[in-house]
Structure formats: structure tokens, C-alpha cells
Amino acid sequence: MTSESGRVDGDSRIHAVRRLVNGPVSQCGAGKIVAGVPGRFNPADPDACPECSTLAAGS
Ligand SMILES: [Zn+2]
Questions:
Q1: Residues with Cβ–ion distance below 5 A, ligand 1
Q2: pTM metric for this prediction
């Protein structure tokens, strides 16, 4: 199961997106997604958030 990917304010990582009723947030808890990134979250991407990668691997 792969997530959508997106960016939050305050860092340059690509995060895995969790869709909540209030809007999308990062799976690692870094905050709200402010910009979507095309394609699915890829833990092998060098810009991928390490915490989201760990969470993605565990699910
Ligand atoms: Zn993250």
C-alpha cells in the first residue's frame, strides 16, 4: 500500500500523505501538506522523509 506524496512547510523532504477530514497531513506528523508531489510516495527517493519511509515500510 503506497501513499500519495507531498511537501509540508518548514522542510524540503517529500512526505507520505495521510488524508484526514480536515485535509492532508504528513504521516510522520511533520504537519499539513501544503503542496502535492506527483506520483506515489517512494521511500527510495533521496528526498523522501526518513520517518515517513519507516512508516511506509511498516504498513
Ligand atoms: Zn514525513
A1: 15, 26, 28, 30, 49, 51-52
A2: 0.91
